[in-house]
Amino acid sequence: xxxxxxxxxxxxxxxxxxxxxxxxxxxxxxxxxxxxxxxxxxxxxxxxxxxxxxxxxxxxxxxxxxxxxxxxxxxxxxxxxxxxxxxxxxxxxxxxxxxxxxxxxxxxxxxxxxxxxxxxxxxxxxxxxxxxxxxx
Length: 136
Description:
- The protein is built from seven helices and no strands.
- By secondary structure, it is mainly α.
- The termini are far apart.
């Protein structure tokens, strides 16, 4: 028996299972068909899609993860600020890998070599903007 024949002969049983709240993975296991097949059956029978509702996890306050998940309370903001400060302080003692454009842009180095390379790049950028007649 093909899947289409099975659907025709057992459409009402599938409908009852879906209306009873049986998830797709359970229907797949019982009927020994693929999940894609069950999705097609739902569509053909006019049944709602199987929406997996994940439980809402609480936001861990006072952590960087909490800030990244959208919490802007004081403790989460402080944790994010502390994490950024820790990263910046770790970079302070390091020397730029090479002087020039990358030293100016990426490392904030303001030696004469890096400033000259940064000026060249900035001048080219502003000339391009003027040529396009784009006002900032």
